[in-house]
Amino acid sequence: xxxxxxxxxxxxxxxxxxxxxxxxxxxxxxxxxxxxxxxxxxxxxxxxxxxxxxxxxxxxxxxxxxxxxxxxxxxxxxxxxxxxxxxxxxxxxxxxxxxxxxxxxxxxxxxxxxxxxxxxxxxxxxxxxxxxxxxxxxxxxxxxxxxxxxxxxxxxxxxxxxxxxxxxxxxxxxxxxxxxxxxxxxxxxxxxxxxxxxxxxxxxxxxxxxxxxxxxxxxxxxxxxxxxxxxxxxxxxxxxxxxxxxxxxxxxxxxxxxxxxxxxxxxxxxxxxxxxxxxxxxxxxxxxxxxxxxxxxxxxxxxxxxxxxxxxxxxxxxxxxxxxxxxxxxxxxxxxxxxxxxxxxxxxxxxxxxxxxxxxxxxxxxxxxxxxxxxxxxxxxxxxxxxxxxxxxxxxxxxxxxxxxxxxxxxxxxxxxxxxxxxxxxxxxxxxxxxxxxxxxxxxxxxxxxxxxxxxxxxxxxxxxxxxxxxxxxxxxxxxxxxxxxxxxxxxxxxxxxxxxxxxxxxxxxxxxxxxxxxxxxxxxxxxxxxxxxxxxxxxxxxxxxxxxxxxxxxxxxxxxxxxxxxxxxxxxxxxxxxxxxxxxxxxxxxxxxxxxxxxxxxxxxxxxxxxxxxxxxxxxxxxxxxxxxxxxxxxxxxxxxxxxxxxxxxxxxxxxxxxxxxxxxxxxxxxxxxxxxxxxxxxxxxxxxxxxxxxx
Length: 697
What we know:
By secondary structure, this protein is an alpha/beta fold. It is built from 27 helices and 11 strands. The chain has helices at 2-33, 38-65, 71-99, 108-140, 146-171, 174-194, 201-219, 221-225, 267-278, 296-301, 315-323, 340-346, 364-367, 372-380, 401-415, 442-449, 455-463, 466-474, 489-501, 507-523, 526-553, 557-569, 571-580, 586-610, 616-640, 645-674, 676-696; strands spanning 231-238, 241-248, 251-256, 259-263, 286-290, 307-311, 333-336, 351-356, 382-393, 420-424, 428-434.
C-alpha cells in the first residue's frame, strides 16, 4: 500500500493546485462576464463552497453503496476532474449569451442560478474527491489519519494560490494557466494508474483524450472571446483584469473586465467630463485625472494647462489607450501608473481641477473614491478655487428610490468638505464640487474663453434647463447618511438598486438560507458547529482583510494575492499541530476559539487606531494567525467525533458550508449593512457562541 499511498497523496496535492487555479480563473471569468460586480464573487464562492460541501457529504454514501473505494476509481475521478477545468471556463464564456440577452444587465437570481449551473459539475466532483481519497487509503489502513489528507490538500491549495498569484497571472492566459495546472493533475493521475500495475490501453486512451481537451482549450482561447457583434482586435490578460477592444464598423470600444470603459466616438461624454469643471476656472495650470474617457485629451488641450497628471492603476490600460488612439498624447501629460487614492494621500502637489472618470461605485474598490475620507484628500490637494468633478448614472424622467438615495448620500458626503456643489443632469449626473461659487451656464463660460465644442454648444440648453437642474437638486434627501470607508452605505444602496432594477427582493433568498441554516444546526454536533463557525469566521475575516487593504493601500495585486495565499498557508502548520495534540480534546477547541476572539479584537483595535498607518505585515500576520488557529481545530474536532469515515465527511462538510455562509453573509449583508466594526463584532459573537457550546458540552 506504500506505493499507492504516495501516488494518492500526489494526486491530492495536484488536485489542490488545480482546483485553486481553476477557482481563481473562474472568478476572473465571472467578473469579465458581469462587469466586475463584486457581489458576483460572493455568489460564486458561496455556490462553490456549498456544492463542495454537498459533494463531500455524499462521498460516504456513494462509496458505500455505488462506487466502492479503490485506487482505480479515484484515478478515473481525478481524470474526469482534470477535464472539467477547461470545460468550466468555456461554459462561463459561451453560455452567458445563450442564457441572457447579449450586453444586457442580469439580475440577482439569474446570476445566482447561472453561477450555480456552470460550476456545479466541477465543484461537486471536487468536494467528492477529497474524502473519497481518504476512504481509498483506509481500505488497507483503517486508522489512516483524516488530518493527513487535510494537510496534503492544503499544501496543494497554497501552491496553487502562489502559482496563480505570482506566476500564472503575469505570463499565461486563462486557458494556458488551466493547461499548466491540470497537466500536473493529469500526470499524477497517470502514475496513479500505474501504481499497482493496472495500466491498460483504455486508460492510456483516456489520459490522451484529456490531454487533447487541455490542448484544445489553449487552441480555442481566442475564438471563445470573440464578441457576438463586431470583431476582437485586441486581447490582453493584465494582472488587474482582462482588457479587450471590440471594433464595430468605425467604432472601437475598450472593455476592462467586461465593462465598457472607452470609445473613440463618445464625444458628448468627453466634452461633459472636461468642460463642465474646467469652464469654471479662470486659470488652468495643473489638472489631475483619475482614469479617463476616450477623447478627453483633445478637449483638455484647449485650456493650455501646464501639467496633466493622468493616474491609471494598470499600465496595460494606458498602453492600449494610446496604441489605438482612444487617448491622445498632449503637451504636459504625465502618466502615473498607481492607485488614484494612494497617490492623493502621498503627493503634495496642488491642482486646479481633479477629474474622476470611474464607473458606478458598485464594488468596494470603486466605492473608496466616493467616501468621506476621499473627499477630504481631494479637498486638501485642490487650489482655493479648485474644482472636483465626477459623475453617476443619469435618468430620464423618473428617479428610482435606490438611485435617489445614492445621489443623496454622495451629495451629503461631499458637502462636508465643499461649500458649493452643482448637479448637472443628463445621461450622467455630474457633480461639480468647489469652495467657490459655481455657474451652471456652461456654454456661456466656454464662449467667454473662446472654446468651441460640438455637443455642448448645440445641445446643452435643450437638455439642461434651469428647471431640470433645480429638479435634480431638489431630489436630494439631506437625511440620508454619508458614505464612509468603515460604513460603505453606497454598497448597500447599489445592492438594493440591483434588485429594484429587476423588481425583485433579496428577502426570499435570505429567508430560505435562514431556514436551511436552522435545519442544518439541528442536525450537527457540537464539534461540527465549531468547525462551521470557524469556516464562517475564516472566510469572513479574509473578506474583511481584503476590503480593508483595498481601502488603505489600493488594489495592488501583489499584496492581495499574498493575502489569499497567507490565509491558506496557516492551515497546514495548524493542522499538523492540531493532529499532534488532538488527545487534549475539548479544551483545545475552547482555547483556539478564544485565540480567534483575541485576533478579531486586535484587528478592530488596529483599524480604529488608523488602518492607513498600519504596515502591510499587520494584515498578513493577522491572516496567517487566523488560518493557523482554524487549521488547528480540524484534526481536534475530527478526533473528538471518532475519526471514522462518517465523521470525516461531516467534518469536511461543516468546514465548507461554514466558509460558504461566511463568504456570502460577510460580503452581501454584514459589511454593506453594518460596516466594518459591526461585522467584526458579529464574527466575534459567533465565535463566542462556539466557545460556550464547547465549554458546556
